[in-house]
Structures are given as structure tokens and as C-alpha cells.
Amino acid sequence: MAILDLVFLTVALLGGAQSIRMPSVISDAPKLLLLSFDGFRYDYLDRPVLKPNFDFAINKGVRAKYMKSTFATKTDPNHMTMVTGLWEESHGVVSNKMYDPKYREIFWMNSSDPKWWDGDGRVEPLWITNERKEGRYSGVVNWPGGDVKYGGRLPTYSTGPYNRSIPYTDRIDAMVRWFLDDEKPMNLGLLFFEEPDRSGHLYGPDSPQVDDAIMMIDDTVGYLVSALKEADLYDKVNLILPSDHGMVNLILTSDHGMVNLILTSDHGMVNLILTSDHGMVNLILTSDHGMVNLILTSDHGMVNLILPSDHGMVNLILTSNHGMVNLILTSDHGMVNLILTSDHGMVNLILTSDHGMVNLILTSDHGMVNLILTSDHGMVNLILTSDHGMVEVSPTRVIELNRYIKPEWYIWVDDSPVSAILPKKAEGESA
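Structure for ENPP5 protein, as requested:
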């Protein structure tokens, strides 16, 4: 099952409707309303719950089978990708919570400081681009990054900083008002809804509570259609209903599923920042004097992975963005990251994911370290091997090369800086 897939629904609202209020002014520009339902998994529309309004929208419009999230499959990063058309490494929002080594600060998803969002002035969301053309106005309600100034500009209409307490119906009413404004009629609106993600995290994606959330969202869609009809906008506004990621159930594990991490430094301090946010662990490892040892132990022995920080640590996802972490550890579907610390420097982790990430396997055999990253659902398929402190691509063992990721993301590291190259062809291997 494609856990990372998510629902994507486009609806053209056609047909006449009795109007309660005819707008005196309406934008001549194409009118679009983008509604995002957080964590709405691709197959939620197929669940046996009452959803007449979704069914109506599907019959009137087009339903895509699924979409692919960008990595990492988080709310803020994927919502920024939707409105900028940029990969996460390019727009710079790589998690809902992250540490930036340039700023030496931690980003939280409700931050409105432009430095976290505008990519040093290179990033511009759709609502700003729309307003660059005369007579076009944008409105944003609770969309991640929607209350941030880009190049000193905000959308014409906004409900201000993120506020989860705004009722869903009030969010829709605001959009309709802005479409009908006499002086500056909106032509682009973006709405964010927290469900069903919130219920999924609290009760699990297959829970009755998520069924209730789906039906509540269906009622919201019905309210929207009625509001557009009453405002005589029903046949004038196009709707796009995407989501940002899916979700899977968690699987309980015993102590045998634990991995112990010990972080040491040959010289001085090691700075360790561990963040766990809905199933992803970000590790940022730095050393004042250039050498950091990452030691992983388990029931089957010990693995030593030495990362030469003098040359910039190995980036498993290469990026030129200073906000990207050095090492991302995640694991298979169905688990959750649990961080346990003690007074003796031990960090016990279950390396897992609930949104669907990357599988990480570390093994040791006669001094060799094999770092294997795979994905069942088309993210990153990559195998790195190491001997005597070197990390390089093993061309004979790479799975599905360049099927889903750019070739330049395959890397080796020796005594030189991190290089982004294509893996060499193995002897006897066909091109």
C-alpha cells in the first residue's frame, strides 16, 4: 500500500444555483480555492463512511489516484512545496521543527520570521506571485507560512497568525467575503484544515475517530458548496482539494527493538540535537575539533561510524540549504520514534516512522559498515558501504538507480569534501 500517497481532488463547480446575493464586483481573473486537509491519506475517500459531498465533488470533477509527498513527509515542508513548486531543499522548510546551524536557532512550525521561509529572498509562494499582476488579490487562512512577509509583502487578505480555534465554517465564510469584496475582490484563496491528521495522531488512522473526522470534513465541503451557491460563485470558482501526507498505524515493540546510540568526540564537546516530530528523528552532530564518532549498538553487536566533520558531515540528502540536517535517521512504517535519555550519555531510540519515511539499516561485518537506505514506496533506494572510515557508493548493490531521485544525490566521501556524483559502473555490469 502506498503509504506516502495522498489524496488529490480537483473540482470544477458547474451548473446554476439560486443566488441569495449577487456580488456588485467580482474578479475577472480565474478564481481558485485551494483547500488542504492535513494528513488525508489517499485511500480515506474509499472508506465505508457517509461522505455525500466528497462523492458529489468527485462526480463533478476529477480525482487523481494519489500524489507523492516530498521528503520529509511533514506538514509545513509539503505545504510550502505545493505553493512554491520547489523541493524542500530549495525552499528550506525541511521539517515542522528543525535546528538551523547558520542561525543557531530552532524553528517551530508557527514561526512567522521570514528568515525561515523565504529562502534568503529566493522563495515566493503562490499568493504573492498572484498579486504581482494588477487586479489580482489573494487570501490565506492558516496555511503554513501564510502570515509571513516575503519580500516585505503579505497577502491582501489573511486571518493573521495560525489559529487552530477558528471554526471551519468561519474560515469558509471569510473566503466567500473576500471573493465578494467591492474594492479588492479576491481571485485566489488558500485554506488549511487540521483534520484528519489531528485525529489520526491521537487515535490512529484506522480508528472510528478518523471516520468521524472524515465525515466532519465532508460536512465542511458541503458547507462550502452551499456558501458558493448562495454567493453566486458556484459556477465561477474552481476547487483543488489536496493533502500533504498519509499515515500508518503504529506497532508496539519490545526492548529487543531498541537501538542504543552513544555519541563521543576525540576532542572536546559534541553537540547533539535530537528532535522527534510525528515519526522522524533529526540528528545534528557537530564537533569543535573535527572528529565525531557515532556508535550504534544492538543485540547483535556494535557498529562504529566515523564521520569526518572537517569536511562537512555526510548528508544522506544532499542540499545546498543551510537548514538541512546532517544526518536523518528513520525506519520502516508502522513505528514511532521514541527518545530515551539517561545520565550517562546514552540515547535509546526506536528508529521508526508513522508518516512513511526511509528505512535505515546499519550492520557490521569484519570492520565493514554497511549503510542501507531503501524505500518500499519510491523515495530513496541507495546503498552505501564503508571500510576503514571511507564511505562510497557500492554500484553493484544499488537498487533501482535513479528511478525516483536525481542521480547527483548518490555520493561518496573519503578524505575529500562530500562529492555529488554518479555511482561508477561495476565490472561486468551493463550500462
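Confidence is low (pLDDT under 50) at residues 1-5, 12-21, 252-332, 334-431.
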